[in-house]
Design brief:
This protein is an alpha/beta fold and 789 residues long. The chain has 21 helices and 35 strands. The chain has five domains: 111 residues, no CATH class; 203 residues, 3-Layer(aba) Sandwich (Rossmann fold); 100 residues, Sandwich (Immunoglobulin-like), CATH 2.60.40.10; 243 residues, Rossmann fold (3-Layer(aba) Sandwich); 96 residues, Macroglobulin (MG2) domain (Immunoglobulin-like), CATH 2.60.40. 27% of the residues lie in helices and 29% in strands. Strand 30 and strand 31 form a beta hairpin.
Length: 789
Amino acid sequence: MIENLLNLNQGEELIDFQLLMRGSWVMLAVLVLVAILYTVFSYRSVRKVPTKGRKLMVACLLIALALLITIVAMPAAKVRYTKAYRPTMLVLVDTSRSMGVEDKRITQETLEEALKILAEVPLDEEVSAQDLRDKMELTEGQSRLDLVRALVDHPDIDLLRRISDRFDLRFFSFDESIAPEGGADNAAEWMQAREATGEESRIGSAIKEAISRYNGQPIAGAMVFSDFGWVKGEDPVYVAREMERRGVPIYTIPIGLPAPPDAMISEVIAPEAVFRGDPVTLRVRVESRGLEARDSSLNLKVNGEEQEIKPIVLEDGAQFVEFKFQPEQESGIVELTFEVDGTDADSNPKNNTALHRLRIIDEKIKVLYIEGMPRWEFRYLRWVLLRNPHLQTRFLMTEGDPDLPKMSPNFMPGFPSDVRNIFEYDLIILGDVSAKYFKPGQLELLETQIKEHGGSLIMIGGTMHAPASYQDTPIETILPVNIGVGQPRVVANNVSPRLPTDQALSPITTLVDDLAANQRVWSQVRPLGRLPVLSGPKPSANVLLELPAQKTSESPYPLVSWHTYGKGKAMFVASDRLWRLRLEVGDKHHSKFWGQSIQFLAMSRLLGQNKRISLQTERKRYNSGEPVRVYANVLSETYEPVVKDAHTVVIDHPGFEDARQELKLIPDPQTPGLYFGTLPAGEQGEYTVGPQAHEAEISSSVEFSVANDSLEDRDTSAKPELAQKIANASGGQVVAPVELPGFIDALPSQPMQRVVSREIELWDTPLLYLLLVLFAGLEWYLRRRESLL
């Protein structure tokens, strides 16, 4: 009875009861006295009414007044009671884009699992291979999220009833963020409304946030339905360890295939720019799994028009496909689109295409070649440089015939004395020249050209001066190798260069297409005679050719290496006998190596670094909404940094007139002449960062593209190993979808009790007002019956 009056629910048992009065006791006493006096005054002169009737009316009036006084006094009850409750089970469903993948199930095991989830075959019976083949088409068009929906609706699994009978069930969906709780009224309908559209899967963050919403409440665990393709957010394994300390196990239910049949273009190896009319080799890396020995094709389109289709046979792994392309247009951008046919079994056609933009230029690379005595390498390289139509080369001989400048305009009488004359060169080749040849400040000038103006340097080592004489000079800091001390290194006649594994596909040292044949070409470069002493490559160096170590305690000798230095690049060629590449083939390989080296080093400057205003972006490709960082290096006519309050550039979206906008760049306080600014990446498409109209002749421009390039689209493999790590770290369990019934039934779910203390207002109980109306009405009725009204 008391439990009902106190509005206690079923399963709540009263332990203690204490009455509280919120009104003033003095006021309460006054009201009681007034009530008594009022009653006595009302009935003291009523003599004609029988005593029994008068007593009944007095009693009714006193009870009504007592009830009214009770309401005014606002009584409350402080109660303590036990409350039974069930622990909470959280269910988290991944709605990132990879959950929309329609896995192509071609093996008997994966096909059987999908058909059982879809309730097309019994859960606990063996299914023949013929039955599976007959029902294979039923799995087509079913995404991973569709399978989760099927699990919720499965009549034999009966997921919702099994969980809700023993736990308080809470549903969440998540992708890059966790959605508000839902599904309480109709979980099946809630699941149907979920869509796999999220750009990222932040599993760890979602688990942590969902559980944090129930802090202080008993949680039986969290069931996570996902392919576990975690890409961003908090590390889910770290979060799982934190949940283990809090006593919250995580039960992972992996959905999707760990290696779905898939063909993709993972990489395009091609230059960013080439000279007009020069043939270029385009290498496309095609990866596939689950499609071994299937016939396919790779299609090349140029500016949207089909150029060439190459038939290929897919391999389980990676393979390279090459195209030969010779641009015909004079200058500008060529769009190269590659597309691989993944066949009907391809689970993810979104990663079958790749785009590469090739810039065609019609300018010349300006080269300054400084050499000492005319070595054999110089004699052959000189003709390579002079025959190349894309080069404008000047030579400076520090030793030999002093009358060469008089006989040929290609030779200079001395090192340029004007700063602007040295800064105009894109590439400087430094042979076996003594550092003492240069006047004070000239080597610093060379460093400035490389570091700040984006020029490039090639040093061809020798046993007389280079690089030994350049220790403790600016050139030493530019080189990608550490200069050693001692007598020149003598190389045995049977030792030849080899290509390091990580640089086997370098655009500089690739002389023939076949990797093995390319190594054979380089193995013919011997004997190498004597080489300068080096202390190994610098940490930033890319070693393109090396000589095997002579002793086990030594490292390989860096024969050819390069690295970036400031805005430019520097290469060191330790041997002056690369002319041996001419053996039996003439100038074929020798000229190709030097042509590729020069183009690789000088091309970036030719694309705009030699302008007085150089514009750059951090990347060439962004996703919508990402910050695009723009830089401008502004120099005066004498190539000195220009310091001003701001520098304005123009952002153009070709084809969209309203998209043109100005961006004001602010100065970098640490670097005079450098300005930077940020804008959000806009809609998908191509953008150009360029100068204002009055600076067009002295400024470069830079292009970038905006696309929706989601990792969820590129790699759709399920990651069951991550699901296992999360479960192990949290003290949970990995559960196969078809094993859910037995798993849920085996979960411990002891009902729990806790003591609750709270105050309950008694004065506004409906029963009091009902009794007040009853007794006041009865007293009014009796008075009316006795004709006292």
